[in-house]
Amino acid sequence: MRTLPATDIELAAWLRLSLAPGLKPAALRLLLCAFGLPEAIFDQAPEALAAIAGEAAARAALAPTGPEFDAQLDAVIAWREQPGNQIVTLDDPAYPPALLTMPDPPPLLYIKGRLNLLHTRAVALVGSRSATPQGVEDAERFARELSVAGVTVISGLALGIDGAAHRGGLEGVGSTVAVIGTGADLVYPSAHHALARQIAVQGAILSEWPLGTPARAANFPQRNRLIAGLVSGVVIVEAAMRSGSLITARLANEMGRDVFALPGSIHAPLSRGCHRIIKQGAKLVETPDEVLEELGFTRREAPRAASGPAHAILWNDAGSGKAPAVNGATTVRPKPATAQTAETSAADSATAPNPAPAHRPVDPEAERLLTALGHSPTTLEILATRTEMEDATLQSTLLQLELAGQVTVLPGGRFMRASHG
Q1: 80 phi/psi in degrees, rounded to 5
Q2: Where is the composition biased (Low complexity) (predicted)?
Q3: What is the pLDDT of residue 249?
Q4: Domain end call among 67, 87, 113
């Protein structure tokens, strides 16, 4: 057996336990509480381990490593040596304290960027991958104002609302954390490579998955539990009835975190999930200040965080604080998601497209304008910004949609999709 430095020997023991098939984090935590560091676990008789965590956990913990383990360890050590990369184990003082309140904290965390953000007060903003323009704007605004108030914005790096939340957090003071469902050396979706690079420099990226782990549907509900565990509250911006965001809301509620939701039009499919959890006890919020007030956070102007060193941070493409203060935990009890629901909502196509209107326009400009309109009353100025249409084109297209019964003109010069039953 090769000789390793003491720090690498300790890392190897943690890695062995984190990779042990069938050894769940909750069982591992029981063993660590009973025997101390991983090396001490390996010195125990199977009967001693079984008495603490059960026979299955004992067998998993003491199973010999496979032939590929040395290569995996070398890859982890090499990844850790890259600028900005850190590996934090469960016994490390730098381990995020909020995760220690969970029954099953991961034994090993892979972190790129500012580790200190995992010790700050934090709020999660999550929602649909198929977000509407209004939803994207709301997520960016909430995240930006929360970030300016000194709150770290946490999300999952997915398309739609997650990406908007990260961008808003970066526009504030750069305090955003992406919790991902792949290995920390990969980026998923591939469209977020540039965003991930920016987060790794100004914020942080966190993964519990071994390096090289690709995007799998089953990984994302587990990723969602870390998002819920890191924060004091979760804000759902847009969500369909079958949505991974509702899984995050359920997990957050079970951990005693507050759950918030933005309301929307009764005609908007992506408002239905939000309305559902509001009915079940989530707090309806319309402004970031309401979230800050509910969580007992005092708004403050935080200085802009200095960016980290502008070193190159490379990934491959995956595409093939303090413990949270619980102020009046909600009584949200969404029905547990089935395995099929979790896997479906974890994929990029988590929500179905909006149903077609009764008389769908064939003009591409009209299609684009309806998409930009969303399901909320919208001003001409906002539509011009969203569509980047010339004034004459915008006005004529709105008139066409109004005559076709697709758009209603409201008092004050606002426009809204017409309801069709």
Answers
A1: -65, -30
A2: 337-352
A3: 92
A4: 67
Task: Indicate left, alpha or beta for 412 from its phi (over 0: left) and psi (-120 to 50: alpha).
Answer: left
- State the chain's maximal CA–CA distance in angstroms: 80
**Surface-to-core class of residue 237, CB atoms within 10 Å of its CB (0-12 exposed, 13-18 middle, 19+ buried):** buried
The pLDDT of residue 47 is: 93
Range of the domain at 25: 6-67
How far lies 66's CA from each of 44, 70, 71, 421, in Å? Answer: 20, 9, 10, 61
Q: Does one domain contain both 130 and 248?
A: yes
What's the whole-model pTM score?
0.73
- Tell me if 155 is assigned to some domain: yes
DSSP calls for 102-149: SSS--SEEEEEE-GGGGGS-EEEEE--SS--HHHHHHHHHHHHHHHHT
Tokens representing 243 are 């949505």
CA distances from 303 to 86, 91, 155, 173 (A): 25, 32, 22, 7
Can you tell me the mean pLDDT for 220-243? Answer: 93
The tokens describing 18, both together, are: 């984190």
**CA-based nearest residue to 96, from 208, 199, 174, 200:** 208
Residue 181 forms part of a structural domain: yes
Say which range, 207-211, 376-380, 382-386, has the weakest mean pLDDT: 376-380
Provide the angle, in degrees to the nearest 10, between the axes of the packed helices 339-346 and 219-230.
80
Residues 209, 185 contacting (CB under 8 angstroms):
no
If asked whether residues 274 and 376 sit together in one domain, one would say: no
Instruction: Clarify whether residues 322 and 371 are in a common domain.
Output: no
CA nearest neighbour of 17 among 47, 33, 37, 34: 37
